[in-house]
Design a protein that fits this description.
3 domains, single chain, 4% strand, 16 helices, Cytochrome Bc1 Complex, Chain D, domain 2, mainly alpha
């Protein structure tokens, strides 16, 4: 017969406090992981419309074929429920699945390798806490020879080197935080960086702007322009744009609207400012300037007056943040004019964010205007009110028609 042991009240109280502290620490870890997963924009790729969040993504079309991001909920059969923290770290840091297979770099592990182990563990704790969803993963549909995984070790040998982010002792804490988010979790160069013919990021032009896969949109350069440093008002407007999706300087459309909606609006403004601090820092990366043949400027002015002036105003200053300004708007004067052409053709909506829950949208004009007219309008706004950018040809507009709208 067992005897009852009396536990001193002080010991019992310490045990209760210790248990509460452990629970609080676990909650804090999950909350930090959720924040970091937002910084990495996990939900955009690993979630499909009409399906549970993070249970597997919609098709990711590329020039190499179509990738289908996997289920990363804690379901043991179809998700990552059988994984441990080391498995997850190995995927982020080394680009390998739980079974040791090399992952395709459509999963941006060349960026995620910079994530610290403590941050990786926090993200894993969050993913373990989300509702499990049973949803089978879909096999990638890749063209030959990219469908051959046996070729991945060669790609990795040429273009991948694992390594955590190392802060620069010569830079401020804000700059280092921004560099960590931009080059690591944020993987900004996945869209805004030029790539070689094998899909690897070009180190000489990692933020110099690039066409999105299949030419759907253009991700403009993020490289610093030494001749045009931002003043305080301009920096504030860019922070608002990235955090809220709208600002006094314009609005975001296309894939960037999804990035703001699913990721950037959840970050602190301090972190968004840190990202901008890093992006503003001088770099030797080339900012590419592409130009097109000049078109009829007068026609564009007349069409602008008929279709655009009532919202964007005669001087292109708009009514921010409802109707974005076109004058002095770097998204209008980007080296490639694809984005303004696409917005004129198919319209667009900024993301719905906490700061802008009911965004105003841009109606499509592609059914009303022919290629020459769209080219004339876009050329006019790229070369008016102090804007200095290349003209747009009807051929460029024609190639933009028929491209998927997202």
């Amino acid at each position: 017969m067992m005897s009852r042991v009396r536990v001193p009240a002080t010991i019992l109280a310490c045990a209760i406090v210790a248990g509460s502290s452990a629970a609080a620490a676990g909650t804090d870890l999950v909350a930090r992981g959720e924040y970091l997963s937002r910084a990495g924009n996990c939900v955009s790729c690993h979630s499909a419309a009409g399906q549970p969040p993070l249970s597997g993504g919609s098709a990711l079309a590329t020039t190499f074929g179509t990738f289908y991001p996997p289920n990363i909920t804690p379901d043991r059969a179809t998700g990552i429920g059988a994984w441990n923290a080391d498995d997850f770290w190995n995927a982020l840091h080394n680009g390998r699945s739980r079974d040791g297979r090399a992952l395709y770099p459509a999963f941006p592990y060349p960026n995620y390798t910079r994530v610290t182990r403590s941050d990786a563990d926090a993200i894993f704790a969050y993913l373990r806490a989300v509702p499990a969803a049973t949803r089978e993963n879909r096999a990638h549909e890749l063209a030959f020879p990219y469908s051959l995984r046996v070729l991945l070790p060669v790609w990795r040998l040429l273009f991948f080197k694992p390594g955590e982010f190392v802060p620069s002792p010569r830079r401020s804490a804000e700059w280092n935080r921004g560099a960590y988010l931009v080059t690591g979790l944020g993987h900004c160069n996945a869209c805004h960086g030029a790539r070689n013919f094998l899909g690897a990021s070009r180190e000489d032009a990692s933020l110099s702007g690039a066409l999105m896969p299949l030419g759907t949109w253009y991700a403009p350069p993020l490289a610093y322009d030494r001749g045009s440093p931002l003043n305080d008002a301009e920096r504030s407007a860019v922070v608002d744009l990235l955090h809220d999706g709208v600002s006094s300087s314009g609005a975001v459309y296309g894939p960037m609207a999804s990035v703001v909606m699913d990721s950037l609006q959840y970050l602190t403004r301090a972190d968004v400012r840190a990202m901008l601090t890093y992006l503003e820092s001088p770099t030797d990366e080339p900012v590419r300037r592409w130009a097109s043949p000049r078109d009829a400027f007068g026609t564009g002015r007349d069409l602008y007056g008929k279709y655009c002036e009532s919202c964007h105003r005669p001087l292109g200053d708009g009514v921010p943040p409802i109707y974005p300004a076109l004058a002095g708007n770097p998204r209008i004067t980007a080296p490639v004019a694809l984005n303004p052409v696409r917005v004129v053709l198919v319209g667009g909506f900024p993301p719905a964010t906490a700061a802008n829950p009911r965004p105003y949208g841009m109606p499509p004009f592609g059914h009303m205007l022919n290629d020459e007219q769209v080219a004339a309008i876009v050329t006019y706004i790229r070369q008016s009110w102090g804007n200095r950018a290349g003209a747009v040809s009807a051929g460029e507009v024609s190639r933009s028609r028929g491209i998927p709208s997202d």
